Amino acid sequence: MAAGTSSNVHLHDIPDVILSNIFSLETETRTRNAMSLVCLKWFLLERSTRKSLTLRGNIRNLFLLPTCFRAVTHLDLSFLSPWGYPLLDSFSNPLVLAQFLRHAFPSVVSLIVYVRNPLTLHLLASQWPNLQHVKLVRWHQLWPSAPVGSDLVPLFDHCPMLSSLDVSHFYCWTEDLPPVIQAYPSIATSLSHLNILKHDSSTDGFKSHQLLSITACCPNLRKLLATCIFNPRFIGFMSDQTLLTLALNCPLLSLLHLADSTSMSNVRPNLIEDASISFATLGDVFSKLPLLEELVLDVCHNVKHTWPALELLNTKCPMLKSLRLGQFQGICRGIASPPDGVALCQGLESLSIKNCTDLTDKALIAISHGCHRLSKFEVLGCNQLTRKGMWEFTHNLRKTLVDVKISYCKNLNAVSSLQALEPIRDRIVKLHIDCVWASIIGEEKSLKNWSKLKYLSLWIAVGELLNPLSLSGLNDCPSLEEIQIKIQGDCRDQPKPFMDAFGLSSLTCYPNLTRMILDCSGVTGYALTAPVGHTDLSLWERFFLSGIQDSTLNELNYWTAQDVDVNQRCLFLPAAGLLAQCGSLRKLFIHGTANEHLMMFLLGNPTLRDVQLREDYYPAPDNDTITEMRVGSCCRFEDALNSSSRHVPD
To answer: What are the residue boundaries of the COI1 F-box domain, all occurrences included (predicted)?
Structure first.
């Protein structure tokens, strides 16, 4: 059409094929839902192009199950409520429910599901025999009489095309997986992705013989993530021979992630004991994995003099883009004019260094010269680094670096960390710092604009305040959308808070902040009556959450504090009252438990439309005397939340 001429061309005149491609490019759920409201044609087109869907709501409300998403290939059932209970037990005939799910979503090849007992997988897996990717979720304890591997057998029985298995969030014993893998050799051979990296610090890692038996059956693995044991004092620890054999078993690996079981906990690292791994063996392992693109070795025990082995990564693993090293010592000497050690890995785009006691400013600067493509950098527990070295590092990488994490570094508190990031202040998108305010008073504050910062992660000790954050130099972040706050410490050793509030009200200076993760799971205290002179968790919860009613949050994930002596993590009255006053909140996920009458407080929030409790410990039996949420109480709360009498503005 010539410029300046008029036309009656309408949006509907766009060919359906092109319009379908446009819809397929949009992945944000709320945006797609808004597009579907334009007209009937767009509604049908959006539904027919949706490939991924997460179901929420109560499984007993089967009449609400959508049947218009027949093209969905990735289905997530892990958020259905009542969360943590057997998915199909709500019906007298669970097979009919499984068949109804298959009828509604016939194209599913990727499934995420909460599996409380083997019956769930037995019924669901048979409905989708073409499943290729499965992620199992379970935080609750095993049934005491369950045979070894019984949860996994139905999956391997019914899904011969399985190529990807993720049990990283699935509570099970390490003894469960090896016999099942060995019993199904054809499926084991076809597996290309296996994630057995346990995120629960209370579970043990896989012993060396278990890991080797698994990898021996899966020679075509491209991605392997596993929790293992590197402590040489333990039976089944990872040795030189174990690493070599693993590399020989799976030569096609593009991603190898091996982490010690203690790396998932909050326990400080062991900087005294050495791992039974030599730098010479590491070089041989790298030579046998030429396709590596991502490598994680979080050993939690010293691996010394590693720079000669790391130099081989550049030549033996030319496609390596991401590297994470935990407690590797001597990764870069930084004394020679040409780069050495990890600084020779010129193709790296992401680098994480954890608990490297001999990493100096000179070594860090050498890494910035050698690894000139870095866009992501993490440094944790490296106490020789200073603000000057970090500033030089970020200055050298100012054209590429957009994601930085600085944590547990003695010389880098909140202010010095932010000052060290000054060269990339106008570019950085994602940032983590520790809220250590020891030297904030008297230092020059650089109150400048962080124009592109969208995600901010903070660690703060219990008893400290959040208010100094804006004074430290982070007061102007116009693009900030999400913040994660991790609070850690023992309230039992703390006096009563000297201020009324932790400081969440100070976050109102971020106009676009809509999502928050407030993680108090690392906070321990007295859930019941505290001894004389101490404060119970209900008052600490009031302290942490005061001010949240002034926020503009749309979504909140809240991990409650815990009393480890009575194994209780629950919502208290102050939290329920304060959350009910957060007038913009639409989604609330409470990682803990609560009493039903406290949950009913939340109904006073007019905008709240999606609430879920996710207990990560075994729920009490129905005949228990405590009044935590049960199936019945959960259903009553959801009925009240979704009642037609509640008008929820959209």
So the answer is: 14-51
